[in-house]
Design brief:
alpha/beta; Rossmann fold; 11 helices; about 50% helix
Length: about 280
């Protein structure tokens, strides 16, 4: 029997948790730009009994992404694709964030649409930041959702973005729109596509954000939320598992906010837990 292939792009805290949650008994392909981090995770997973292959990828390179898709489809039917890779505002410039978090996501979705198996599913890890900005004008929303991938970085309002935090929020907002649109194309192959918008998650990237100049603001938001805590990578992995499963067979083209209630509290002004 040919093993089903699970592709996890981005091997940070969430990527590792998803790999461990979804990879058992399947052919697991993990991909990342950082070769040292990638090989370290692949080695740990192999030691723990996973059938895993590592593949270096630059999500902003069409040739590199095509190579990953080819490697995945050659290994067997690609039934699950989870894209967790991204850059945060404390890690990169606005231009770099747009190249990876906006263009890179769109490129992955377009490319893997051509190889995902019938009854397969994909999940993009976005961010609650995309829920916290004013909605762009309708023409900009349409461009973010449906413009040809090679035109995304040439959009005037994208090129004008210079603040890393605002670029990150716009890119994550765009991820949701792109998933909305691409889910139709995936559906023609009999596959589903959704996104997840995590809140503050205790990963190295999340801890880096909490230690930044905006860290206190983030902690205040967490304290005011319904759960009053930082999330864990496995909180996200569990949500991913649901969206990839047959139990979510009627769910596609949508976003699941997994933020511990931060956005809800911000939008309603509700007080956080006191005990």
């Amino acid at each position: 029997m040919t093993a089903r292939v699970v592709v996890v792009i981005g091997v940070g805290g969430m990527g590792e948790a998803v790999s461990r949650r979804q990879g058992s008994g399947r052919k697991l392909i993990v991909a990342d730009f950082n070769e040292e981090t990638l090989e370290a995770l692949a080695s740990r997973l192999k030691s723990d009994g996973y059938d895993v292959a590592a593949h270096r990828v630059d999500v902003s390179s069409p040739e590199s992404v095509a190579g990953l898709a080819q490697a995945a489809s050659s290994a067997g039917p690609v039934t699950e694709v989870v894209h967790t890779a991204g850059l945060s505002p404390v890690q990169a410039s606005a231009e770099e964030i747009m190249r990876v978090d906006l263009y890179g996501v769109a490129l992955i979705l377009e490319t893997f649409c051509d190889v995902v198996a019938p009854n397969g599913a994909g999940v993009v890890i976005s961010s609650m930041s995309g829920h916290m900005i004013p909605e762009p004008p309708s023409d900009q929303q349409k461009d973010l959702a449906t413009a040809p991938v090679d035109q995304l970085l040439k959009l005037p309002f994208v090129q004008e973005m210079t603040h890393p935090g605002l670029a990150y929020a716009l890119a994550k907002y765009a991820n949701r729109l792109r998933v909305n649109a691409e889910s139709v194309r995936w559906g023609k192959r009999g596959a589903r596509l959704n996104s997840i918008s995590p809140g503050v998650i205790s990963t190295p990237m999340g801890q880096e954000e909490l230690s930044s100049e905006n860290g206190q603001v983030m902690r205040t938001m967490i304290d005011a939320s319904g759960t009053g805590r930082v999330g864990t990578p496995f909180d996200i992995a569990n949500a991913v598992a649901f969206l990839l499963s047959s139990e979510a067979s009627f769910i596609t083209g949508t976003d699941l906010l997994v933020d511990g209630g931060v956005v809800g509290a911000l939008k309603t002004g509700a007080p956080g837990p006191t005990g």
